Amino acid sequence: MANVSDWLPDVQRYDAGADESVVAGIVKHLGIALQKPDGDAALVSCSDKSELERVRESWLKKKLKRAESDADLDKAIGDVCATMSGDNRKKRVTFYYLAAKHFGALDSLK
Asked: Which long-range contacts (CB under 8 A, 24 or more apart) does 60-67 make?
């Protein structure tokens, strides 16, 4: 099982005050996808259109229950990609945290 301490430092690079319970909620949600921290399932590829659609559909719409248009959700995803542009390997937990933060939805993940 993935441990929050494996992911929290990366999230804190972008948000020094990141709430550990929020990160723990994301880790719990992702579960088995994080078994291999450097595996494809634990990372988000901003150059893969189908990957970004999965983020929009599964994370933003299903988990966070966002009702904005696809264009608005895609813009938010693009903003997270831009924020993390210095990382060649964008960790999914951090990506999801930043997307949730964008929409003010961090408290829903505790």
From this structure: 60/99, 60/103, 63/29, 64/99, 64/100, 64/103, 64/105, 64/108, 66/103, 66/105
